Amino acid sequence: MRERQTVQLVRRARDFESFVAGAAGRLLHAATLLTAEPPDDNPRARRLLTAALARTYASWDRLHGEDPYTYARQQLAYRFLMMSWRLREGRGGALGMLSPQERLVLVLRVHEGVAEEQTAALLGLPMERVRTLCFRAMSLVLAGKSGALRLTSTETVRGVERVRP
């Protein structure tokens, strides 16, 4: 019986290691975008990814046919939302001017390609709210690149013009 359990544990560890080898780079990039840290100096993103992967490993046996990448991304989003109150200050860069919720929606929708319905379900928000957050975030990022946002209804928040829905 012990040999069987040992074989299962070794197989589980090997499967998880191969998953991490294939997915960790993309998940780290998503975590770096969420924390708005520079790619070469991203300790918060690394801690966020480590916590998400630890939770994924703990739930590995219960995934039964589910996509482990989807689960890991979901854990990454949950962990980010739990720690986002500590990340309120702007961090610089194009995503640094966004609120944590706007950043999360933008990364999920644009970088990860998650559907609007799935993003809304993951965050527990109505689809209209997800759509609005994504629009605001894209407007802010594009305004930061072009220097000025030419829309009729705007408000200034933290020194940045923000589109009102």
Automatic annotation (TrEMBL):
Pfam families: Sigma70_r4
Biological process (GO), any one: DNA-templated transcription initiation
Segments forming domain RNA polymerase sigma-70 region: 94-138
SUPFAM superfamilies: Sigma3 and sigma4 domains of RNA polymerase sigma factors
Single annotated GO MF: DNA-binding transcription factor activity
InterPro entries: RNA_pol_sigma70_r4, RNA_pol_sigma_r3/r4-like, WH-like_DNA-bd_sf
Residues in the signal sequence: none
Protein name: RNA polymerase subunit sigma-70
Lineage per the UniProt record: Bacteria, Bacillati, Actinomycetota, Actinomycetes, Kitasatosporales
